[in-house]
Amino acid sequence: MSAWEPLTERQQRILACIRDFLRERGYPPTVRDIGREVGISSPSAVKYQLEQLEQRGFIERDPRSSRGIRLSASGARLLGSDDVVSIPILGIIAAGEPIPVPDFSLRDVGDTIELTRGILGDIRDLYALRVQGDSMIDALIHDGDIVIMRHTRQVENGEMAAVWLRDRGETTLKRVYWEGGRVRLQPANPTMSPIYIDDPRQVEIQGKVMMVIRQVR
Hints:
By secondary structure, the protein is of the alpha+beta class. The protein has five helices and eleven strands, in the order H-H-H-E-E-H-E-E-H-E-E-E-E-E-E-E.
């Protein structure tokens, strides 16, 4: 089926269901949720329609998550929605040992990723980074994923953040813990050790993680 062929009425209802479910609840529907909302009793029939919509580029799916269904920018536009937002991808962040990269700047905009506004909520000060490394796999952040960040200079204990290490000229993605006179940068991988920074002045928060966009492999 060509992407230019009109959608069936059932496919249109499924797209609208995904949009409305996310707006009302703040998270995507499952296959069973969609079936219940649009009146399709067979999960396999819903899955077939989702496959068709995915092949035509109107939705994107993460096979590792039962709720990994979202409208693509094309799907949102097809519904006549103006809720598509372009988030700048500013570079690479290491989820492993810190790697030398330029300091992130909201002015250095290159590639972008398009998401629906209903997924993001408040879109102020958002940017995206590509993840390199597997130190955060227990937080469901894998090598090659994209993290949506909110630009901020402060995070609470345990929040995931992009951290600039001034004295090393390196960045890393870790959970941040302020422990008296030092900072612990904690990976989410049991095979990796935390990074301890004895001088908190060397730690500059570049932003905190708001969302993960998983790349299908």
